[in-house]
Write a structure and sequence with these properties.
323 residues, alpha/beta, seven-stranded mixed sheet, 12% strand, globular, S-adenosyl-L-methionine, transferase, Nicotian_synth
C-alpha cells in the first residue's frame, strides 16, 4: 500500500476502535455520526485496496467491523420498520423516511437489470430472498417497481424481524398478496428451494468466509438446475463493511457477471446460475475465475464456447417452464 492507502486503512481501524466502545449500536446521535463517517470513508472506490493481502491484525479488525456493521444495520432496520408500521395508512407510502432508501432503489434497479440481461428478459414467477430482515426493502422495491407479478418468499432466522416485515406490507393490497415470510434457518430448507427461479442471498448472511460458503454449498445442493443465484459482495475498502464473495466460492454455479458500483451503492453484485447435474452426481463445469469485474457502464463475462452453449440450452429450458 502507498501512504494514502495506508492512511485510509488506519482511519477505518480508528473508527472501529471508537465504534467498538459504544455502549449500544441502536440508532443514536453518536452511533449515526460514527457509522456515517465509516461509510463516507469506505465508499470511494479504490481498487488498489485488497483486504486479502493485509496483515492479520487488519484482517481481524475487518472481521469484527463486519460483525458490528451487521448488528448496527439490524438495529437501524428494526427501528425504522417500527416507525413505519405505526403509520395509519399504507406504511409503504412512507419508505423514504429510511435514510438509505434511495440506495435500495438504485440497487434494486441494478439487480433487476443484471437479472434481465442474464435470463433474456424472462420474468421469474417465484423469488426467494434469504436474510430479508425487519425491513425487506429489496423485495419491496423489486415487487413494486420491477417484478410486478412475481411472488416473493422472504427467509429470516429472527421471528421478530419477520413479524415487523409482515406487518409492514400487510396494508398494501398488492404486495401483501405476493409476499410471504418464513422464520427458519435456510440450512434447514431443502426441497422447497427447488421451486424458486431466482434466489437472493443477503450480504450479511454468512459474515465470514466459512459460513458464507456453507450457505452457498447448501443452495447449490438444493436449488433447481438453471436457477439464478444473486449474491452481494464488496470491493476495495467497501470490504470493511461487507463480506467478499469470490467466483471460486461458487462451486456448482456458472458465474455470469460481477458488477462493482462506483456510486453510493455499496454492494457489488454477483449473478450466477446453477449448473446441471450429470448422471454420476457431479456438476457440469464449475465457477469461472476468469471474470473481469464490471465498471458502471458495462458488464463483462468471459465464457468459453461449450459453457455458452450450455447456458443457452438452460435458458431455452427455463423459457419453456415460464411459458
Amino acid at each position: 500500500m502507498d501512504c494514502q492507502e495506508e492512511q485510509l486503512v488506519n482511519t477505518i481501524c480508528d473508527l472501529y476502535e471508537k465504534i467498538s466502545k459504544l455502549e449500544s449500536l441502536k440508532p443514536s446521535e453518536d452511533v449515526n455520526i460514527l457509522f456515517s463517517q465509516l461509510v463516507f470513508t469506505c465508499i470511494p472506490p479504490n481498487p488498489n485496496i485488497d483486504v486479502a493481502k493485509m496483515c492479520d491484525t487488519v484482517q481481524e479488525t475487518r472481521q469484527k467491523l463486519i460483525k458490528i456493521c451487521g448488528e448496527a444495520e439490524g438495529h437501524l432496520e428494526h427501528h425504522f420498520s417500527s416507525i413505519l408500521t405505526s403509520f395509519e395508512d399504507n406504511p409503504l407510502h412512507h419508505l423514504n423516511i429510511f435514510p438509505y432508501y434511495n440506495n435500495y432503489i438504485k440497487l434494486g434497479k441494478l439487480e433487476f437489470d443484471l437479472l434481465t440481461q442474464n435470463i433474456n428478459g424472462l420474468v421469474p414467477r417465484n423469488v426467494a430472498f434469504i436474510g430479508s430482515g425487519p425491513l425487506p426493502l429489496t423485495s419491496i422495491v423489486l415487487a413494486s417497481s420491477h417484478l410486478k407479478e412475481t411472488v416473493f418468499h422472504n427467509f429470516d432466522i429472527d421471528p421478530s424481524a419477520n413479524a415487523l416485515a409482515s406487518l409492514l406490507v400487510s396494508s398494501d393490497p398488492d404486495i401483501s398478496q405476493r409476499m410471504f415470510f418464513h422464520t427458519v434457518d435456510i440450512i434447514n430448507v431443502t426441497e422447497s428451494l427447488k421451486s424458486f427461479d431466482v434466489v437472493f442471498l443477503a450480504a450479511l448472511v454468512g459474515m465470514n468466509k466459512e459460513d458464507k460458503v456453507r450457505v452457498i454449498e447448501h443452495l447449490q445442493k438444493h436449488m433447481a438446475p438453471g436457477a439464478v443465484l444473486m449474491l452481494r459482495s464488496a470491493h476495495g475498502p467497501r470490504a470493511f463493511l461487507y463480506p467478499i464473495v469470490e467466483p471460486c466460492d461458487l462451486q456448482g454455479f456458472e458465474v455470469l457477471s460481477i458488477y462493482h458500483p462506483t456510486d453510493d451503492v455499496i454492494n457489488s453484485v454477483v449473478i450466477s446460475k446453477k449448473l446441471p447435474v450429470v448422471s454420476n452426481g457431479s456438476v457440469v463445469g464449475g465457477p469461472s475465475c476468469l471474470l473481469m469485474p464490471c465498471n458502471c457502464s458495462k458488464i463483462h463475462a468471459i465464457m468459453n464456447k461449450k459453457k455458452k452453449m450450455m447456458i443457452e440450452e438452460l435458458e431455452a429450458s427455463r423459457e419453456e417452464q415460464f411459458s
